[in-house]
Design brief:
This protein has 283 residues and is α+β, with helices and mostly antiparallel strands. It contains 8 helices and 11 strands.
Length: 283
């Protein structure tokens, strides 16, 4: 098992109140944007809770990034991490065919993340990885960086904020600060307290816009749109209704977006970005 990485520092945290220190030369643009908001430092999660340390080469890293574009492959990885040594192909449910399970198992084994054994069982080699969440954050951050030329930090902790200070992804897109929250749980497992915590972080940080991205092909309208509307009204917004932008992408006042992974993640993020940036000139 690879050694656990220490958390990366993206700021020295030496300031105690007052004016934030000057950004260090070469500081990431997102760190500079935070300091311009009076936030002197932030921590970024290292890769130790992701699958990345278990990959043996940069080529394997690229292979994993490419495979993660597939929703079925993400579900497969998620189930492996949940079932671990209890994994059996038949436990994956009707979403997967035997041929697709065999194909994805071979792909994951080639990456060195599992070892397949007799009887269809596996041994998970990424023993320290407890869930898929951090790996998914990395993948979405990489998508923003590669597909939209964004400056990105992920797994960000900003100490001292009343909202708790944990932000999945912070990015600068066309000079605007984006806060993106990722969810790998299906909608039925996302509760009001999680949505309220997201809105609390939005209120405290005051990014230019924010997105909740749920890694599912299920509808947003049934549960998550009402949860967000209820949360917005609890924050004092009398009109907390979410408007449909396109298919399963919704918006509140073109400032907060909710979308899923159906079609693909990059396409749905593009819908959010177009809606936020375009057709504002005479608004």
């Amino acid at each position: 098992m690879p050694s656990r990485h220490r958390r990366r520092r993206s700021g020295d945290g030496s300031s105690r109140g007052g004016t934030a220190p000057e950004p260090e030369p070469g500081s990431p643009p997102v760190v500079r944007a935070l300091r311009q908001r009076g936030i002197p430092a932030s921590d970024c999660a290292g890769e130790s809770r992701t699958l990345l340390p278990y990959l043996s080469s940069p080529e394997d890293r690229e292979s994993l990034y490419g495979l993660l574009h597939s929703y079925a492959f993400r579900l497969f990885l998620r189930d492996i991490l949940a079932l671990r040594d209890r994994y059996q192909p038949e436990r994956l449910g009707p979403f997967f065919s035997p041929d697709s399970v065999e194909r994805m198992a071979r792909q994951v084994e080639r990456l060195g993340l599992i070892r397949r054994m007799r009887g269809g069982k596996i041994r998970l080699l990424a023993e320290a990885v407890t869930d898929f969440g951090d790996t998914f954050e990395w993948f979405v951050a990489e998508t923003l960086r590669r597909e939209f030329a964004a400056d990105v930090l992920w797994g960000v902790t900003i100490p001292g904020l009343p909202c708790g200070g944990d932000f999945d992804i912070l990015a600068l897109v066309a000079g605007k600060l984006l806060y993106l929250e990722t969810k790998t749980s299906p909608p039925k497992h996302i509760e009001q307290k999680e949505v309220s915590a997201f809105l609390s972080r939005v209120k405290t940080l005051s990014p230019d816009f924010a997105v909740i991205l749920v890694d599912t092909h299920l509808r947003m309208k049934d549960k998550l749109v009402p949860l967000l509307s209820e949360g917005l009204r609890a924050e004092g917004m009398t009109d907390g209704e979410m408007a449909r932008v396109e298919k399963e992408t919704f918006s509140w006042e073109r400032r907060i977006y909710l979308t899923n992974a159906k079609r693909d993640i990059a396409s749905n993020l593009s819908v959010c970005l177009r809606d936020y940036f375009l057709d504002r000139f005479f608004s």
